[in-house]
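Reopening this ticket.

The earlier resolution said the output was attached, but the attachment link was broken on my side. Pasting everything inline this time so it's all in one place.
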Amino acid sequence: MHNQTTISPRDAQWREELRKSHTAKERMAIPRVKMTELSPDYRVTCNEEVNQGLTHDEALIEATRCLDCPDPQCVTGCPVSINIPGFIKNIERGNIEDAAAVLKETSALPAVCGRVCPQERQCESKCIYNKTGREPVAIGYLERFAADHACKRSVGEESGHAESSGIKIAVVGSGPASLSFAGEMIRLGYSVHVFEALHEIGGVLKYGIPEFRLPNEIVDAEIKQLRDAGVEFTTDCVIGKTLSYEDLVQQGFKGIFVASGAGLPRFMGIPGENYIGVMSSNEYLTRVNLMGAGRPGWATPVIRGKRVAVIGGGNTAMDSCRTARRMGAEEVYIVYRRSEAEMPARVEEVRHAKEEGVKFLTLHNPVEYLADDKGRVRAMRLQRMELGEPDASGRRSPVPVDGDITEVAVDEVIVSVGVSPNPLIPDSISGLDVTRRGTLVVNDETLETTVPMLYAGGDIVRGGATVILAMGDGRHAAASMHEKILTTIHR
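Inline output:
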């Protein structure tokens, strides 16, 4: 729930001065900034970040477009309730460090969110400009600008710590929900220890999102701020195997937050999915992004198909098809059973994929894969679809067109049709209620599970969502756990 942001008298004064510097009509006449991007021909040859960011002058001009609404609806569209007008007005007056400090009040990962959050469906969708037929303020671009240009102060120096309570809190997983939770709890004065199963910190930010969209150095810089603030990290530690829930309790952890994600890939259950060359997007992206597949000096194997099909229409599918182009694929197809209008992927990601030569086979669904005499996939059979009546989600359901099946030659298939939580943690902790989808049952108000003082958020609860929604869960769970500790442990 959005709480009205309190503005100090000092801030109110300079914001009033900014309002007088331009009329609303003058602000609205300024066109939305266009971010510089690498050319498609060049970027498919490397992993360099496609979006190049805003210059100082571009950011100041874009910030000037913000009308500083009395009731900023953009804030209601943000899952972590960032004070959006506050940080934008700081940019407008040229105080980038204060803008970054405003972001850090509610977001542990602003440089990440500025790059990968679907602002067009969240904060920017609520911008008052939409009601006038104009493009919304580029909130995401400005968030990235402020975060990237922030001074190197730690989380604690930016926002202050509460006095240390000495209470130990464990965090399972190191993805966006966990990092957000850890940032909140360290600020509140707790001793926070994050346990990660893989060899690098970052979770899906490292293994799931390619560097051409989110460079590792950006993630590492955000993690460093958490380390500097006092958060401890342990890698190569699988909770449920290396350490049990009981081990954590015996080690003195008074609260546990589980955000181990949803790393169990789903398949469609159609003939041929076991052929060589058919894999999940999870496996493909993890091999390439985290394990160095295809890079000089790394031994991780990966199939380098020349004609690659990616099944699905979400951001992970876009990441997969764009990665395939960078891995040398000559033809890449996105196969999606609905129309492009129903694709859950960000509009920008779809545009970038098309610019990079990816072909879209919408209103098609694979029904079978065919193999050569060595058991390697050689083709896919696609059923043509049409849109029928809306389903429970409100989207029109795809239905097959009788007899309309085509065969398309491919030598690699990457399946990106959804994920489920790994059952390891649910199976290793007695008393945890689990849904039929394998997600953890939590109290909607507090995010506490059916095991007292064990909270959960992100994909292990949602079953697959955005980075910012996971971060919102982390922040929400931290507030709930803190309140319970205050009312029970310290009672």
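Reporter confirms the inline version is readable. Residues 152-159 have pLDDT under 50 and may be disordered. Residues 467-487 form the longest helix (21 residues).
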